[in-house]
Design brief:
Mean pLDDT: 76
Strand order of the largest sheet: 1-2
Helix content: 40-55%
Strand content: 5-15%
Structural class: mainly alpha
Distance between the termini: 41 Å
Largest sheet: 2 strands, antiparallel
Length: 95
């Protein structure tokens, strides 16, 4: 069933599973805070998983755009090579 997912979705899914495993085996963390104490409404692992998945997805999408010739990336820079195609992909068109 996983083979029906596009390549990006499979790699993001694999990254999510590996990060989930790491957070499950990690012990508790102690840190110093400033100001008022806040209790998270869901476990910290869920927040960490969401943050990691967001970063991983962004990296993979940008690499896919680069491979498709839509952008060119360098350290700290992204150069748009095909703005019109990116606009069409986003669903936004110039009036």
């Amino acid at each position: 069933m996983i083979s029906t997912f596009p390549r990006i979705a499979r790699s993001v899914l694999a990254s999510s599973f590996s990060f989930s495993f790491c957070t499950l085996i990690a012990g508790s963390a102690h840190a110093h805070g400033f100001g008022q104490r806040f209790d998270l409404p869901i476990p910290l692992n869920f927040y960490l998983l969401g943050a990691a998945t967001t970063v991983e997805t962004a990296i993979r999408v940008l690499r896919r755009f680069e491979r498709d010739g839509l952008i060119r990336g360098a350290v700290g820079r992204v150069r748009v090579l095909n703005a019109e195609q990116l606009r069409r992909m986003s669903g936004k068109h110039d009036s």
